[in-house]
Amino acid sequence: MFDYTPPPTLLADRVILVTGAGFGIGRAAALSFAAYGATVILLGRTISKLEAVYDEIEQAGYQKPAIYPMNLEGANPSDYENLANTLKTEFKRLDGLLHNAAILGTLTPLEHYDIKLWYQVLQINLNAPFLLTKALIPLMKNASDASIIFTSDDVGLLGKAYWGAYAVSKFATSGMMQILADELETNTALRVNSINPGKVRTSMRTTAYPAIDPKTLPLPETIMPLYLYLMGPDSHLINGQTLKANDENIINN
Ligand SMILES: NC(=O)c1ccc[n+]([C@@H]2O[C@H](COP(=O)([O-])OP(=O)(O)OC[C@H]3O[C@@H](n4cnc5c(N)ncnc54)[C@H](OP(=O)(O)O)[C@@H]3O)[C@@H](O)[C@H]2O)c1
């Protein structure tokens, strides 16, 4: 597990947007960023899940979050511009952006991959992070220390049979992260990196590996040290990197 002990006010006064914040790793990240002082914008497609996270944050007494419902599959460029304008009006700047939302698609040979599903996976996992990043970069340039985090996966680093559109989207996301990091390296206070979560107990993992007992996998909360490190100021010199949050199978009941 990535080893980092953040100070309690690590993310104080920071405004951070998390995609797919209603469930799984995104939910844990939103709660964790809020616990360390951030105002979190909860973006996702299922309002009831976002509301549950909102309530958890409010009940814990953290900074009041905001909910921004958005289905990344159907959103068009003007929806992203509306989001950027809303954030500009409300917050003036954006200090952090976690691209977490993704779908698995299906595990099948490319020869038999459903074409509609292929487009759907690439729209949510690749085109949406591009459109969101493009719309929000100007706002992030207003921050004095800003961090964009993409989410990668082992199957997006080395080609493996049957992982199809999901793996292709993760390969492309890694490339996009490196391109952006290089473009923004000079004359901005904006860094861009990827987190490879490793094996984590979520619904996506269970769908991908139905034969593996989820109880043998670490909970999303346990991988948060790396998310906090890359979102906070201690990582200000890290740019263009892919870091792995967890290498082990640890039981965390
Ligand atoms: N779990 C692992 O072991 C593992 C390993 C490597 C990489 N990852 C990566 O980690 C990230 C989080 O995965 P997870 O395991 O937490 O998955 P998950 O439990 O399936 O959660 C995915 C999240 O993305 C949201 N989402 C999906 N489609 C969306 C759309 N069209 N618009 C808006 N939001 C959408 C989901 O919202 P709804 O709940 O409303 O559907 C959900 O909140 C992903 O990028 C995944 O590729 C996970």
Key structural traits:
253 residues; alpha/beta; Rossmann fold; seven-stranded parallel beta sheet; 7 helices; 7 strands; 13% strand; globular; binds NADP nicotinamide-adenine-dinucleotide phosphate
Helix count, DSSP H or I runs of 4 or more residues: 7
CATH class bucket? Alpha Beta
CATH architecture: 3-Layer(aba) Sandwich
Largest sheet: 7 strands, parallel
> What is Rg?
17 Å
| Share of helical residues | 25-40%
Verbal overview:
The chain is 40% helix and 13% strand. The model is unreliable at 249-253 (pLDDT under 50). It is globular, with a radius of gyration of 17 Å. It has one domain (15-244): NAD(P)-binding Rossmann-like Domain (Rossmann fold), CATH 3.40.50.720. Helix 1 packs parallel to helix 2, helix 1 packs across helix 7 (224-231) and helix 3 (77-91) packs parallel to helix 4 (115-140). The two termini are 16 Å apart. By secondary structure, it is an alpha/beta fold. The structure holds NADP nicotinamide-adenine-dinucleotide phosphate.
